[in-house]
Design a protein that fits this description.
Layout: E1 27-29, E2 35-39, H1 42-51, E3 63-68, E4 74-79, E5 89-95, H2 102-110, H3 116-125, H4 132-137, H5 142-150, H6 155-158, E6 160-166, E7 172-173, H7 182-192, H8 197-216, H9 218-222, E8 223-226, E9 229-234, E10 239-244, E11 248-251, H10 273-289
Antiparallel strand pairs: 1-2, 2-4, 3-4, 5-6, 5-9, 6-7, 8-11, 9-10
Amino acid sequence: VTALLKFTRTKQGQYEWIQLVGHPGTFKEGLHEGYVLKALSEKERRCCELLQNDLLKDFVPKYNGTVADEEGKHYIEMEDLLASFKEPCIMDCKIGVRTYLEEDLDTSERDPEPRADLYEKMIAIDSTAATEKENEEKKILKPRYMMWRESLSSTEELGFRIEAIKKSRGLMSKEFQRIKKRDDVQQHIIEFIANSVPRAVQYLNRLIELRSICLQSKFFQTHEIIGSSLLFIHDANRASVWMIDFGKTILLPDNIHLTHTQPWIRGTHEDGYLIGLDNLILIFKEIIND
Ligand code: ATP
Ligand code: MG
Ligand code: MG
């Protein structure tokens, strides 16, 4: 489900909130100025709390604890990263060589029932994707579907994919799920930054700093980071990028240490976070040098 959500603060007039991806209703206006509420997930709350005292602190939204609304629905309150920008352009890149947890794959494998709905979804996207047997049954197993879906985008190869882009005043576009080729990804990034080299330099410097902090961060060393995004935001004056969305980021068992750079093999928990970050860094470098 993808939604474009806006709420306008009548008090201050100007303010506009834009949500690129995720379910509508997940976000609400914050209790404090410059903050938003996101529907509570325990995994994410835990990460937000840890990150406030980690070296990565300046690369994540500030976290302000949890709140409940009148209906008893719980939220985390976090910094609205858009608040300091004027008519921002926004890009959400989901980082990593896979976007599901190993435990999600385990769960899906415990369900031995092939599914017709997933088969239909697959065929609608690529009529040649199913095997002969799957075509006969017109059904497909969930783990097979999950793995196939990752191969559609640049996720597997580049370690990131563009989820959505919103240009200032322009329409939001989310037709990115099937962009796989490096050149195409690069072209979309060039368009996003409106071909501005100074902007590319600001993004690049921030990404390089993020990479160096990741290598020293306790949080980064001890977590499998899945389905998390880098949120790129710029306006006429400034460009910067932050880590968001920790709903599928989990603490690693003591005996597992990630490189974040090795390709994923089942059981290793490798997330490919640095594969994605390095490819983004290379792409921005190329944009600057071309
Ligand atoms: P999904 O898991 O489907 O990616 P989600 O419900 O976990 O979605 P997020 O990915 O955290 O939600 O956020 C969805 C969108 O909301 C982002 O792409 C971004 O546009 C916006 N957003 C999220 N957090 C912030 C923030 N702190 N400041 C500004 N915008 C944000
Ligand atoms: Mg997200
Ligand atoms: Mg999420």
